[in-house]
Amino acid sequence: MTEWHVDDELATRYSGGALGGTAAASVEAHLLACERCRGSVATAVPEERLRKMWGEIAEAVDAPVPGPFERLLRLVGINEPTARLLAAAYSLRLPWLAANAVALLFAVLAAGIDDRWGLLWFLAVAPVLPVAGVALAFGRGADPAYEIGLAAPYSAFRLMLARAAAVLVTSAGPAFAAGFALLGRDWAVVAWLLPALALTALTLVLSSRFEPAPSGAVLSLLWLAGVAAFAVRDEPLAMFGTAGQVTALTVVLVSAALLFLRRDRYQSEDSR
Amino acid sequence: MNTVVVTNVVKSYGRHRALDGLSFTAGPGVTGLLGPNGAGKTTLIRMLATVLAADSGTLRLLGRDPSAERLQIRRRLGYLPQEPGFHRAFTVFEFVDYVAILKEIVDRRARHDEVRRVIAEVGLAEVSGKRIRALSGGMRRRVGIAQALLGEPELVLLDEPTAGLDPEQRLRFRELISRIGENRTVVLSTHQTEDVAALCGRVVVFDGGRCMFEGTPEELRRVAEGQVWLSAERSGVLSWRTGEGLFRNIGQAPDAARLAEPTIEDGYLLLLGDAAVGVRS
Ligand SMILES: Nc1ncnc2c1ncn2[C@@H]1O[C@H](COP(=O)(O)OP(=O)(O)O)[C@@H](O)[C@H]1O
Ligand SMILES: [Mg+2]
Ligand SMILES: [Zn+2]
Questions:
Q1: Coil, strand or helix: which one is A123?
Q2: Can you tell me the ipTM of this complex?
Q3: Most buried residue, A254, B3, B166, B182, by CB count within 10 Å?
């Protein structure tokens, strides 16, 4: 070995990160061979910097890897903590999103078979998908950490709304696109949109008192029964006419007002 | 300073009174809520966790009123429910991290450091990358405690943290909990007198939603002083055969009996036994 060693001053500059490329590289080459200097560099590393380095190593080793949906959320600009909270919901994970897409595909295929009844089939099913997704996105039955979350400072009401919005986008979005792309540019292919919003909003309103899953199921059944009854009595698309749309819009507005006024009831179990 | 002050709290489910005018206080250290199943322990702890409100009576938590300042209390609270749910597909780290977000630790690096800290504190550092569904019951319980420690809460509520653990795990839990209680208020519920003896500085005994005793474990033990007898014959309401072939009787002295040193369990049984035969009520 050479007579050259890393003196105290050099050790401090190196461990403080103040040395440039070549100088640092030659120090490192020497350190590999010389145990004495390794010791002196190690003691020269400030505690704070060592802690930081250790933190970075730990972070690289065990920080959770976001799933595909969470990455997508980040991509569209949703911040990291919110993306994590959203992606934890059952109906915002891949299996559900896939099932949702399959159901939609069948509805669209059915709609293609025959213009009147087929379209009815699509319009009836499209609102049920977001309702089912929302019903499985929060609440004691669907969220395993519900009780812990209720006692945590993050607002349970806000979490519910955020997840409902995410579900609406992920299930109504594709339905919207599929309707236009596969069924033509007729206004009728989006006639399910307001009913979908109305049913979803009602599910949220009811969940201040009841579990979202059964509420969603009951509302969906009522909806399907209503569509069927109208279709049999009048004309297949009767429920989606102007009167139907106005009713749906009214339900949306009233529900939104109720949600806002009763928002505190979602933060604890006091009202159940 | 008392962290928890409960005064005359009543809570009913339909016609059933789960808490019937309960009062007690708890300060720094470990306070045990001791009572049989159905005594109202979970109902009370959920109230302390601001999840449930009282029908009547008052609560003060960390010097605040939970009906008016819930959020401020929640920011200083750690809570392990009796049956905590877990996202089973999450790893330990992911689950604790998820709760950390709910606890408003927004910055990712700071949050991850805090998650690492609490996981290490309950001794799960080695399995932090494991999925929760692959963990044993005792380990899951520790995950539950870890999340309750996030953000260094001043008030930690643990509902039956030792239930269903084997003796060795139970011992490690007591160690962990008494360490947690060194610098904050811990309120835990249990139906095991050994837990109280081993780790509580104070104990509140209650049954049927009423407080029957409040004091130190030693004071609970002395409740049965002069009322525990060893004899050859069974006598009184509470008596059972011990390892030495004698009967241990709590209550009035049977014939030819020898006075015995009471244990905490004797005190507890005496309190509950009185309630059972209606002496006190
Ligand atoms: N959600 C509820 N609905 C109806 N009764 C309940 C409910 N929760 C608890 N109870 C009743 O209240 C009493 C106290 O229950 P709990 O607080 O769980 O007691 P513990 O935790 O001491 O076993 C029991 O009689 C129980 O049946
Ligand atoms: Mg209980
Ligand atoms: Zn050297």
A1: helix
A2: 0.89
A3: B3
